[in-house]
Amino acid sequence: MNSISQVIHTCETCAAIKQAKWVKPLRYGGRWSKYKYGEAWQIDYTTLPQTRQGKRYVLTTMEATTGWLETYLLPHATSRNTIQNT
């Protein structure tokens, strides 16, 4: 953990963006013990102006423990599109 914290505090790019005051550990004990990596995803649709290709919705999926985000442009917000793209 110390090496990660040292890299963040000494990285010029990190310092230019925002230097972290502390690193929040991911742990299987405590409040994160309910899920392991890849087991919990948060899914949501957002509407946008329609594109030339007819796509009007953005499906956003985020892995709950790591914060990994994926987005997909879709023409319809349906359960079929949700299942096919997750």
From TrEMBL:
Domain of life: Eukaryota
Entry-linked InterPro entries: RNaseH-like_sf, RNaseH_sf
GO molecular function: nucleic acid binding
Protein name according to UniProt: Integrase catalytic domain-containing protein
Organism expressing this protein natively: Hirundo rustica rustica
Lineage: Eukaryota, Metazoa, Chordata, Craniata, Vertebrata
